[in-house]
Write a structure and sequence with these properties.
elongated; mainly alpha
């Protein structure tokens, strides 16, 4: 039992009718970005470059300024 060209076209047509062309483009873009990020992270880990997640480097180095409360926050 094989899937023919007509069946694939019919399924794609139904998907376009349900989701709409704009959502399909957004879904494809999000999926592509996710796959690209996964490949980049997986490649970095296998190459021995153990990078920390974003934000941990700044906290460890102490380059960030401490957060001071605003005057409007005191009344809460």
């Amino acid at each position: 039992m094989t899937v023919g060209v007509l069946e694939v076209l019919f399924v794609l047509f139904v998907v376009v009718l349900i989701l709409g062309p704009r959502r399909i483009v957004d879904l494809g873009r999000a999926l592509g970005c996710g796959v690209r990020d996964f490949k980049l992270e997986f490649g970095n880990r296998t190459a021995g470059n153990q990078r920390s997640p974003i934000g941990e480097d700044e906290e460890a180095s102490g380059d960030r300024k401490p957060v001071t409360p605003k005057a409007s926050d005191k009344g809460l």
